[in-house]
What does this fold into?
Amino acid sequence: MLSKVKHSATRAARKAGMVSAGALCVLVGAGFLTGAAWIFLATAYDTLIAASVIGAAYAGIGLLLVGLAGSDEPEHRPAPEPDPKAAPASADAPPLLQAFLFGLQAGASSDRR
It folds into this structure.
């Protein structure tokens, strides 16, 4: 029992570390791309246009993310599984169907890990 908790904690810590490192890399990359965009736009046009384009891009991305975060998604609930014990295995059923229902019932009642 304790080993499962340790394994779960280790996996969660590893995942958190990877996500943090990935987010840091994305932020550093965004900084360098912003600098490159600034240099390109300031050279091609003017510093005022460069600032306007980069500011509008960040504002647009921010508004898009706020809009996505505020949207309510319907909760997806899995459909309830039919009770295999409730399925009647009539004498009229073909042997293949009876075997399938027997296997379905055996699988549902087995101890799953």
